[in-house]
Amino acid sequence: MRLIGWAIALAAAGLTPAAAQTTASAPAQNASAAPGAAATPTAGTAQDAAKPDAAQPAIVPGSVGHAIPTPGVGEPDGRKGIQMQVTPIGEEALGFHNYWLLPLCAIISVFVLALLLYAIVRFRRGANPTPSRNSHNTVIEVVWTLVPVLILVGIAIPSIRLLRHQYSPPAADVTVKVTGHQWYWSYELPDYGVSFDSYMLKEANDPTRQANQRARTDNDGPPLLAVDNRLVIPQGKVVKFIVTADDVIHSFAMPAFWIKQDANPGQLHETWAKVDRPGVYFGQCSELCGARHGFMPIAIEVAPQAQFAQWVGSNGGHMPGAKPAAAPTPTAAAAPAAAGGTPPAAEPAAQQPATNQAATAQN
Predict the structure, then answer these.
(1) d(Cα 48, Cα 165) in Å, to the nearest integer?
(2) Rounded to the nearest 5°, which phi and psi values hold at 293?
(3) What is the pLDDT of residues 36-88, one digit of tens each?
(4) What number does CATH give the domain 174-314?
(5) DSSP assignment, residue 294?
(6) How far apart are CA 214 and CA 45, in angstroms?
(7) Using CA atoms, how far apart are residues 319 and 339, in angstroms rounded to an integer?
(8) Are 198 and 187 in contact (CB under 8 A)?
């Protein structure tokens, strides 16, 4: 048996260098396969991989889709308590928390502390050398049973009212499908013909940032929360979010909207928001979803209706009722060939990620 063990160890030692050499040579072969081929943008990146940062399309701070965030609004600012709410549901929930639950918790805590201190002083050994033998008190037992029941009923009434408002949404003006991936978000507005991916923006000094990736600035938002493509929704409209995932469980969380909805693969969950205050609001995935869970932020920009329509058009979409741009007819495409010209080559389809790892190489 000892000889068999030595034989297995020697065989493994002999195979290891060959396997390592084969693995190491694979990238070199791939690199030399197409020396003149242009670099392909990472999936989900809206920028040109062949251009450095200086040659990328200019971002105009303050324009639709690139509004400058307001400090302390829609983003963490170190305050104690809940973020300022900008939806009717969020305002109702914040009032319930601040003006009912917190005072009730404080009153109960003070009352229990007072009882504890009274019992320590009143029933200490020095004051009671002969301890009482009482074990029951009907009045006290009735009180400490009824009072907690009444407290729970008092909490249940506003809680059920809040849940009814939250899960009985009005008719939606805009529908957004949200899909969580490892580790980025995809958004689709089916009524507007708009769909895109949204990735976190890295810092300028981040060694993992690729040449085709725009670096984060303060105009984009806080570190770890700014994204390359924000979701834009119209001000004062009811927006329905249909949330799902394509790999593992994620959670679509936007604290300023009072939204935290799990995204489960193969399931569609629904939540909604109506925001009357224009601005930029940030959130994050709030369900542990893998190694880079902390690097898939959410950024939603609320804009007036006219700017929202402008953003839809700039993303190749169209407003409901408007006809999308017509595709060229076969007759029109054949005209250059009939005139002796060469029809333009069809643009290659956008590359889709083969795996989650390839799609998130930029993260």
Answers:
(1) 45
(2) -55, -35
(3) 333 433 433 444 545 555 555 678 888 999 999 999 899 988 888 899 999 99
(4) 2.60.40.420
(5) G
(6) 10
(7) 37
(8) yes
